[in-house]
Amino acid sequence: MTGFTIEGELIFNILDKLRKDGVVPVVEAVTAAGGFYSTSMSAFDDYSITSGRLVTGTNPQSGHSTAERIVRLFDNGMRP
User: Fold this and answer.
1) Residue 42: φ, ψ to 5°
2) Can you give the pLDDT at residue 4?
3) Do the Cβ atoms of 47 and 40 come closer than 8 Å?
4) Sorted alphabetically, which SUPFAM superfamilies does this protein's record hold (predicted)?
5) SS3 per-residue string spanning the chain
6) What's the CA gap between 28 and 46, in Å, rounded?
């Protein structure tokens, strides 16, 4: 799963629109469901994580590192 941070939603000026439309920001939805939302120090940093078979990146800058993590999982015998 991936989604904007609150910082990213503010930078792109969409947080108010989301709230007006009744959309819960991803970070709030994940936290409310008991999940852990991990993020980089800056909204535009390359940041990806692996948790079991789940691999995710936070933004377009994370495409390469996310792909590397997926390849590593397959190289280590992990299958979907």
Assistant:
1) -125, 150
2) 82
3) yes
4) Class I glutamine amidotransferase-like
5) CCCCCHHHHHHCCCHHHHHHCCCCCHHHHHHHCCCCCCCCCCCCCCCEEEECCEEEECCHHHHHHHHHHHHHHHHCCCCC
6) 22
- Type of residue numbered 56: T
Long-range contacts of 35-41 (CB under 8 A, 24+ apart): 39/5
Q: How many CB atoms lie within 10 A of CB 74?
A: 10
The per-residue pLDDT string of the chain (80 residues; one tens digit each, 9 = 90 and over) reads 677 889 989 999 999 999 999 999 999 999 999 988 888 888 889 999 999 989 998 888 999 999 999 999 999 988 76
Question: At a CB cut-off of 8 Å and minimum separation 6, what does 36 contact?
Answer: 30
